[in-house]
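Structure tokens please, single chain.
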Amino acid sequence: MLNMPNLITLIRIALIPCFVALLLRYRESGGEALRWWAVAAFAAAMASDGLDGLIARLKNRKTLLGSYLDPLADKLLLLAAVVVLSVRMGRLAKLPSWFPVLVISRDVLIALGSLLVHMLTGSLTPRPSAAGKCATLLQMTTVVWVLCGWPHLAVFLYAASAFTVISGVGYLIDGLRILQRSAPAAGG
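Here you go.
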């Protein structure tokens, strides 16, 4: 069902190509205004993430569609940002190539694990973990830090990396527990 929170999430997804286009245009021209427009697009997308969740909770508008669409929008935004920022963008610091590989690998493993759990158990309700939320927040902070050209990027980069690994291991353990609980039922 398409309600206000889901509509906000779709707008966040629509901001992703705008953000990427602004950054690529900045790379070509070096125009600082383009970089700040990219920062604004990314910040608007981040703010919409909080807004859709707040509305969904306060107005009791949580939907199954939203439970899939919201994390998908987060992943698409972050993946686009870390991949684009892993190549030289004008005067901005470049994310090391291992960072997008780490983020993408974790997300692919979570997606494949979720698919496996769903196939073997017949159901799966997405539930973000505290470590996963911290990883997302730190990844977004790292992206903003790069976009703004602020110093001490390594602090956020390594914190985001650590929580990315921790949350990936946590999701793996959760998936194994779900499979273990469903094993007797599946084995009959």
